[in-house]
Amino acid sequence: MKYLVLQSFVSNDTVGTKNGYVTIQNEEFAKSLIDAKIISKVGNKETNKEKDKEIAKLNTTISLLNEENTKLKAENEELVEKINSFEKISNEDNELENESSKENLENEQVNDNSDDKSILNTESN
User: Fold this and answer.
1) Burial (CB count <10 Å: 0-12, 13-18, 19+), residue 111
2) Is pLDDT above 90 for 124?
3) Are 51 and 74 within 8 A, CB to CB?
4) Which end of the chain is more exposed for a tag (fewer CB within 10 A), N or C?
């Protein structure tokens, strides 16, 4: 007779995988497995209820995971935007520093030239 496997099991001549089907000829052995709730007769309403409960539970889990996934995607997008804004600010800061460095260099060159002229004036006197 054919049975639905509720819990995986292995015996001397039979292997049952959870939610799979197994054929067992020995009625006494089958009864002991049914009593232990390891297998169930195919079409058993109790088995269908258990499967329906498991399906509902899995669907709930899927729904929760989809919601979490959506939240994480939104959070990821926000973080990418923040990173991009920080990179833009950093680039702007670097440009300002470069401009400031150029101005300082130009000022130093002007000062150096002024010092050279004052030295010349001092020497000629």
Assistant:
1) exposed
2) no
3) no
4) C
